[in-house]
Amino acid sequence: xxxxxQPRLRLRSLANKLALLxxxxxxxxxxxxxxxxxxxxxxxxxxxxxxxxxxxxxxTSDPLGEAMGTDITExxxxxLVRAASDRADARVMLLGVQRSVGFPGDPSEAPSLYxxxxxxxxxxxxSGYGLAMAAVARDAVEDGVGRExxxxxxxxxxxxxxxxxxxxxxxxxxDLSEVGEIVGLIRRRVLVAAAVALFVASxxxxxxxxxxxxxxxxxxxxxxxxxxGDFVDPVPVDSADExxxxxxxxxxxxEQLVRLDRARxxxxxxxxxxxxxxxxxxxxxxxxxxxxxxxxxxxDEFLGQMREQTERLKKLAADLLDLSxxxxxxxxxxxxxxxxxxxxxDVAAEFIPVLNGHETELELEVADDVSACCDRQRMAQIVxxxxxxxxxxxxxxxxxxxxxxxxxxxxxxxxADRGPQLEGRRVEQTVVRQAFDRFYTGDAAGGSGLGLAIxxxxxxxxxxxxxxxxxxxxxxxxxxxxxxxAGGEEREHEPAVGPAGTAS
Length: 504
Known about the structure:
Shape: rod-shaped
Number of helices: 13
Largest sheet: 8 strands, mixed
CATH class of the largest domain: Alpha Beta
Oligomer: single chain
CATH topology of the largest domain: Beta-Lactamase
Distance between the termini: 94 Å
Number of strands: 13
Radius of gyration: 53 Å
């Protein structure tokens, strides 16, 4: 039962569909030519022949009318009729009108026609008599196309008047068989052309469709391999048409998928590494704490280490959750006008305990009235990330600067760290470009390498950005957001927050 289904499946192919479509278009076009154009052409040729015959009939019938009422002999009249026939290139019959007198309404009162002369040697009986009767009845020239022995014939009946009455009728007849032959020839040529066109259209459509289908199948095959997780070589882009655009788009998609797959693998590897270290550390401390011979001081030290590792795990888990929300587009931002100066002071106050332990001063340079449209909570998170990064990489007793300013319609929040030991850890341009990559740390200062990546994502979600300027004297991370109100250019230098949390 499967064998009969194969032809139906083949008809669903693009090649067959295009071949059938082209054939149908050609067939419809030639059918229109055969059914409308060719008959219309024949009708136009017949009408043209009829108009020409009517013109010559009017030009050659006057000598016949002048012969009425004269003593012309039959032989002379026959010669006159044949002369008119030669001039008109048509058969000419001269018919006489015989009228009878009777009662009004009597059918016998209707006139009858009789043959006077015929240019044809063997006249055909009553050929064109009906048209002649119509011309007599209307006292006007009548024309029409009839048939004799199956051939079309154009006829013109011209009444000839004597003393105000039509006594004779000259009937001109011209054979139109040539018109039929011409139209038949055209019809045969059209049929031959239609057959050739159908073959060419079907073959050409099939070949073109096969070529297009092969290129589409090439992209389809590559897409299936990519869907199965097997990346392939780029699909050749061998044309500038829609299929070429499709291949180019597929290659771009595959490049992005390769990058995403590589990033995913690196993400999993780095996340596993970052999680494994504190987990193994906690497991080791837990085993050590089971030793009953530990003194209280050592036990407290181990508990402190476990607390630090737990905090590290909590921060890493929070960072991973933020990144997953950012990637999924599920992180909701509540945009509002935020006073960045106030926000910077609040975040700086949170770092007083850290500054005390690090013995580092935090300098605040906050301009007046600098506001931006952003999410207050997420902007505070960015500032915390930048301050935490600066303190992690800044030697003790070195200053860290947090500044807020408005420049050219943008609100800028910058965190800069500097110190006498900074020269040895200046980064190269390649490192600058990687600073915001996930899990990139750049040195052994610790951290998961997720903070700056999160900061950049959040800044971009708030229609802003973050940049790194790694100079020879200080490293500056600058966050730029669209400013709501641009304040004055002079900045308020606030007292530095010292190690003890007091102004210095």
